[in-house]
Specification:
- There is one protein chain.
- With about 250 residues, the protein is α+β, with helices and mostly antiparallel strands.
- It has two domains: about 1-70, no CATH class; about 90-245, Trefoil (Trefoil (Acidic Fibroblast Growth Factor, subunit A)), CATH 2.80.10.50.
- The protein is built from four helices and 17 strands.
- The chain has helices at about 1-15, 30-50, 60-70, 80-85; strands spanning about 15-20, 20-25, 90-100, 105-110, 115-120, 130-140, 145-155, 160-165, 170-175, 185, 195-200, 205-210, 215-220, 225-230, 230-235, 240, 245.
Length: about 250
C-alpha cells in the first residue's frame, strides 16, 4: 500500500512546468526508495532553482541533479571538485552482491596462484563461494547512460579485480589494496583505471563487465568447470561474459 501511494504521488509530479523547464520521467523506478529520491529531488529543484533563460544547458542540468539526487548513503562529492576535475571518477556507493555466471557457476578464491575460479558448487561446498563488493563511480565527462563504471572486490578482503596488459592481451588479476582511499577518486588518465570496469545490463538479470582501460575485453568464465575467471573478447565462444548479480 505504501509503495502504491508513493507511485501515485510520483505520477502527480513526474511532469512539471517550472519557468519553461520541463521534466518528464519516462520509466518507473524499481523501488520505493527510488520514488522517494525523485520526489525529493523534484521538490528541491522547484524551490531552489531559477533558470537564467528559457532552458538549462546539459551541464547545468547535470549540476542540478548532482546537488539534489545524491542519497544520504552515498559518499558526498563536492560540487566544486566535480566541476574542476571532470576527468575524475568518484566512488559513490558500495554494495555486496552474490555472483554467478550464466552456467550457474559460483566464484571461489584460489590461493596459489591467487585468482578467482568459476566452480559448480554442491550444497556441502557452498561455504567456499565468495561474494563481490561492487563500488559504483561517477564522472562528469562519462555520460554513457547504458554502462556504469564500477570496481569489484572480494567481500571481507582487500582483494580487487584489475585488468592490466601482459604481452599482447589484457589479463585479469587480483590485487591487494589495503588503503581503500586510493580507490575513492580515480583519474581517468591514470594507472588506477585498471580497477574500473563498465557494468552493462542486458535484460532484467544479466550483466557484463567490460574493462574501462581495454575496451572490447570482458570479464569472463570458461565453459569448463573449475577454470580461472579471466578476460576475453566478447565473441569468444569458449567463454561466458554474462553474469547474474544479486544484491545482498
Amino acid at each position: 500500500m505504501e509503495f502504491k501511494s508513493a507511485c501515485i504521488a510520483f505520477e502527480k509530479i513526474s511532469s512539471c512546468d517550472h519557468n519553461e523547464l520541463h521534466l518528464e520521467v519516462t520509466q518507473h523506478p524499481h523501488s520505493l526508495r527510488d520514488v522517494a529520491n525523485i520526489i525529493v529531488a523534484l521538490h528541491r529543484m522547484k524551490h531552489s532553482y531559477t533558470p537564467r533563460g528559457t532552458e538549462f544547458c546539459d551541464h547545468e542540468l547535470l549540476d542540478i541533479m548532482l546537488e539534489n539526487v545524491f542519497e544520504e548513503s552515498v559518499t558526498p562529492v563536492a560540487v566544486d571538485t566535480w566541476r574542476s576535475k571532470p576527468n575524475v571518477f568518484y566512488n559513490t556507493k558500495v554494495i555486496e552482491h552474490s555472483v554467478c555466471d550464466q552456467d550457474q557457476k559460483s566464484l571461489v578464491l584460489h590461493q596459489s596462484p591467487l585468482e578467482l575460479h568459476a566452480v559448480i558448487l554442491q550444497a556441502a561446498s557452498m561455504h567456499l563461494k565468495v561474494n563481490l563488493n561492487l563500488s559504483t563511480y561517477m564522472s562528469r565527462n562519462f555520460t554513457d547512460s547504458q554502462r556504469r563504471p564500477v570496481a569489484l572486490s572480494i567481500a571481507g578482503k582487500d582483494l580487487y579485480l584489475s585488468c592490466s596488459k601482459s604481452g599482447s592481451n589484457p589479463i585479469l588479476q587480483l590485487e591487494e589494496v589495503k588503503d581503500h582511499a586510493m580507490l575513492k577518486n580515480i583519474d581517468a588518465n591514470g594507472e588506477m583505471t585498471r580497477f574500473l570496469f563498465l557494468k552493462s545490463e542486458q535484460g532484467l538479470s544479466t550483466t557484463s563487465l567490460e574493462s574501462l582501460k581495454f575496451r572490447g575485453w570482458f570479464v569472463s568464465t570458461a565453459v569448463e568447470d573449475k577454470r580461472p575467471v579471466e578476460m576475453c573478447k566478447e565473441d569468444d565462444s569458449a567463454h561466458f561474459t554474462n553474469f547474474s548479480f544479486t544484491h545482498l
